[in-house]
Design brief:
The chain has 492 residues and is α/β, with parallel strands linked by helices. It starts with 6 loop residues before the first helix and ends in a 19-residue tail after the last strand. 28% of the residues lie in helices and 26% in strands. The protein has helices at 7-10, 27-41, 55-66, 80-90, 154-168, 185-198, 210-217, 228-237, 242-250, 263-273, 359-365, 406-414, 451-461; strands spanning 16-20, 23-26, 46-50, 70-74, 95-97, 112-114, 134-140, 148-153, 175-178, 201-204, 223-226, 253-256, 278-283, 287-291, 316-317, 322-326, 342-347, 354-355, 372-380, 386-391, 396-399, 402-405, 419-429, 433-442, 470-473. Helix 5 packs across helix 6, helix 7 crosses helix 9 (242-250) and helix 8 crosses helix 10. The radius of gyration is 23 Å and the shape is globular. It has a 9-stranded mixed β-sheet, with helices on both faces. A 4-stranded parallel β-sheet has the order 4-3-5-6, with helices on both faces. Strands 16-17-19-20 form a 4-stranded antiparallel β-sheet.
């Protein structure tokens, strides 16, 4: 079996591999712990992992993958019904958890194995595993029905992490800091398995804070991964926090994902630190699809980095990824003009193989010639850069004969000084088909921008047909654990 983590034995034994708070493991200690646990797991098909932001979660997942066993990360915040569905659907043989972790009653019947991060033993048995064998089963929160388990093969993990290493010049010398949850592909695959495949280090904050980011970047970390909510908090804090400015200015790479980073926050961070955030695009079923390429800035005047990040775009397809936009009837868009909206479809080694126990959903997700239907809507510039405008189900608004992406209106609204947060949806209109609705969190609760003010603001920046026709003022927008706005919870 080819290991997904050759650095477990190839990296210097005393190099730091993982650090969670004040607990850490070197590569030698990590190899010993994962070997001992992998020997216990060999021969099983699937094991569940209680995915708390701790060393034990990282050790459990790496051990499972080293044993050729698929890991099913469980969100500790899942409700009883959702957790019950995931367990009955995935049927894990064991549950791996940190010693002392309090588990809900619904897990009582599942055999528990406490993860010993200081475990030792002989080398794990060499278990045959092929590139197409399952590595992870990650459950996606669908808009209707129970979550579906996306089966991610070993080749998808390897292909994605190697493509990102190429795009971002990611090496064993990099030290990544983040505070992302570990039951999702962003925090787990990119944020933990990525550094370990490269032979680098990860410092997990446990819980995100701007103080933690500043501390770790100023203490030698080179990369920061986050979601838009985190970067928004960073952008808000920069004016009053010179240590945070220094930290971001000195970082090698700042990456945002899981949702679109508003252009307003891009620009505030760039203005304060001189650094641009790189956006990447992916989803559970595909892992990573696009990113701007990062290369060191050329010192010669007038020469810019290859694939310079552009606010509002997710860059270009990664090596090995085929990406196309299609019309509503499925016909490919052959000429990219930066304006024509289409659904993103993809092919490549980074794709999931199936939805567990759901052949109907799997078949519906793919075209006859093997393209995966992402459900994301985008435009593509003439030079290949991709700009996401929203989800087909919730963010594509058909108004007055136009196809309008909610994302560009949200970015325009966020440029208004009276707007702190914004979401845009469509609702039925007897004349227009759909009218544009803005959901606003004001910057100052005592001074709410009016519909007329916001409509004029958007019409001047975009086009009159993209102006909101209705505005709702809220104290906060509903978000999930990854910071994505839950638009289906917005209704008048």
């Amino acid at each position: 079996m080819t290991s997904l983590f050759p650095a477990l034995r190839g990296a210097p034994a005393d190099r730091p591999a993982l650090r969670f708070g004040d607990r850490s493991l070197t590569y030698a200690r990590l190899a010993a712990a994962t070997d001992a646990l992998a020997a216990r797991l060999a021969g099983y098909d699937r094991v569940a992992v209680w995915a708390t932001p701790e060393l034990e979660t990282a050790v459990a997942v790496v051990a499972a993958l080293e044993a050729g066993v698929a890991a099913v990360p469980l969100n500790p915040k899942s409700g009883e019904k959702e957790l019950g569905h995931i367990l009955s659907d995935s049927a894990p043989a064991l549950l791996l958890a940190a010693p002392g972790a309090e588990l809900p009653p619904g897990l009582a019947d599942l055999e528990r194995v406490d993860v010993d991060v200081h475990g030792t033993g002989g080398p794990a048995p060499d278990t045959p595993a092929r590139d197409g064998d399952p590595a992870l089963v990650v459950y996606t929160s669908g808009t209707t029905g129970p979550p579906k388990g996306a089966v991610l093969p070993r080749r998808a993990v390897a292909a994605t992490l190697d493509a990102l290493a190429d795009a971002w010049q990611w090496t064993s010398q990099d030290v990544l800091v983040h505070g992302l949850p570990l039951f999702h592909v962003h925090g787990l695959v990119l944020g933990v398995l990525g550094p370990l495949r490269r032979g680098g280090s990860v410092r997990h904050l446990g819980r995100f804070s701007t103080d933690g980011v500043a501390r770790e970047l100023n203490a030698g970390a080179t990369m920061l991964f986050g979601v838009p909510t985190m970067y928004h908090r960073i952008a808000e804090a920069l004016a009053e926090d010179p240590e945070l400015v220094k930290a971001l200015a000195g970082a090698r790479l700042l990456v945002s994902g899981s949702a679109a980073l508003p252009v307003h926050d891009h620009e505030r961070i760039a203005a304060a630190t001189g650094r641009r955030v790189v956006e990447r695009y992916g989803m559970t079923e595909t892992l990573m699809l696009c990113s701007s390429r990062w290369t060191p800035p050329d010192p010669r005047p007038g020469v810019r980095a290859d694939g310079e990040p552009r606010a509002g775009t997710v860059g270009v397809p990664l090596p090995g990824v085929e990406l196309r936009l299609v019309e509503e009837d499925g016909s490919p868009i052959t000429s990219y003009d930066g304006e024509t909206v289409g659904e993103i479809q993809v092919r490549g080694p980074n794709l999931f193989t199936e939805y567990l126990n759901r052949p109907d959903a799997t078949a519906a997700a793919f075209t006859a010639d093997g393209w995966f239907r992402t459900g994301d809507m985008a435009v593509r510039d003439t030079d290949g850069y991709v700009r996401i405008v929203g989800r087909k189900a919730t963010d594509l608004i058909k108004s007055g004969g136009y196809k309008i992406g909610a994302g560009e209106i949200e970015n325009a609204l966020l440029e208004h000084p009276g707007v702190r947060e914004a979401a845009v949806t469509g609702e039925p209109d007897p004349d227009l088909g759909e009218r544009i609705v803005a959901w606003i969190v004001p910057a100052d609760a005592r001074s709410r921008p009016s519909l007329e003010e916001l409509a004029d603001h958007v019409a001047r920046r975009l086009a009159p047909h993209k102006r909101p026709r209705v505005v709702h003022h809220l104290d906060s927008l509903p978000r999930n654990d990854m910071g994505k706005i839950m638009k289906r919870a917005l209704h008048g």
